[in-house]
Amino acid sequence: MEIVCPVDAQFADVIYALLCPPAPLQAQGYFDQLISKRQTRGIKVEQNGDFGKGVFADKEFKEGELILKDQMLVGAQHIANKMDCLVCSFCFRFIGSIELQIGRKLYLQQLGVSVNHDECDMEVEEEDNFADGGEEDDSSMENGEDSGACASTSSHRNKVELPRGLVESLINGELKLPLTENFSLPPAIPCAGGCGEAYYCSKLCAQSDWETCHSLLCTGEKSESVSSEALGEFIQHANETNDVFLLAAKAIASTILRNRKLKATCLEERGKLKNVLGRTVSSALFEAWKPLSMAHKRRWWDCIALPFDVESSDEEAFRAQIRSLAFSSLQLLRAAIFDNECEPLFSLEIYGHIIGMFELNNLDLVVASPVEDYFLYIDDLPSPEKDKDGQATIIALKPIHKGEEVTISYVDEELSFEERQALLADYGFRCRCLKCLKEES
Ligand SMILES: C[S@@+](CC[C@H](N)C(=O)[O-])C[C@H]1O[C@@H](n2cnc3c(N)ncnc32)[C@H](O)[C@@H]1O
């Protein structure tokens, strides 16, 4: 029987208005303002016929020139990657020390929860359901050389017995490795909310994350969630099924907090109401939702690519199971961070579209691994030049002329046409770039 989410029916008109794609002029104004607030000059967002919105060069770019460097809208570290490295929960740079990073990884390896590069099955995945939808990359970041790795037990790997106490002394700083003073990292500052989960590179990052979304998603004693227990259940469910739910929770929490901030600080927004198909709704909710309203979206269970191991005759059952999984997650999130003024955000329709938005727009973010740099240095190899933080950076790979579209490849361009199309199926569109059109014909 199909699940019915009562909020969908109760707020159908508001949900419809929230999910309406912005008018071209409205989107143009939003992105013009966004770009004007960044240091970047020389790009603009324009509608590009059949392809929707695109970024275009407004000046000549030389090869190697920086086009854009910007903070992500919403980002999270993959669960498997969390086992591998300790990074700032806001800007994603490595924190602590080389010794802590190595000691922590060895410790988790001993517990049997670290990364095994030979396999790619999440330990936490349930065998007989479609929970993960066959996806590996629906969250937003990977670090250094561990890209694409998955958590698994390492019991059958060749184990090297480590001297007793070695791991502890690496973690607690008693043991110094040679030359690590050349690779100093920012300290690991624990979340002031007391969750013991989030760590930051600075007080500024801790504060920014708290204000952006973590105050609602922290499980510590200072949490501003409705119930830390419910939040714990939501997080556990996401970890056991699909960590894209953690990303969706960040998107909802940040909208709730923006709504509260707008109402608290902006007199105009406090009393302002919007008429949505005959119903009056606070206009602050629409303003708070704006950054998410700009992104291309479809319902998750409609746009997710059918995994290879699901027969087409089972497609309907597969999509119903994905929808039901999203509903279970949403119920847990609702119990954890419900906000009366933002109730439409707790509809399955909005939740499904937020997750679908990540499915269709997500990019993996690779940040420099100082641990990798350290080993390269020790091996007397030159270290690769990479950015140190988790900002999204776009650099011109070839000269780009004024008026030309600035594009990025969603997949490895070296792959064959068929392999590229198979990977692009996850993004829910048939690629019509010049290379694909040429090779197709
Ligand atoms: C990440 S979004 C890009 C932004 C999008 N154009 C918009 O208006 O928001 C991806 C979507 O853009 C369109 N798109 C991007 N590149 C394309 C390509 N090479 N061929 C066909 N469609 C493309 C598809 O509709 C795809 O689902």
Automatic annotation (TrEMBL):
GO terms for molecular function: methyltransferase activity. InterPro entries: ATXR2-like, SET_dom, SET_dom_sf. One of its GO terms (biological process) is methylation. Residues 33-411 form the SET domain. The keyword Transit peptide does not apply. Transmembrane segments: none annotated. Gene3D superfamilies: 6.10.140.2220, SET domain. Residues 124-145 have a biased composition (Acidic residues). Residues 124-156 are annotated as: Disordered. Keywords: Methyltransferase, Transferase. PANTHER family: HISTONE-LYSINE N-METHYLTRANSFERASE ATXR2, SET DOMAIN-CONTAINING PROTEIN. This is Histone-lysine N-methyltransferase. The lineage of its organism: Eukaryota, Viridiplantae, Streptophyta, Embryophyta, Tracheophyta.
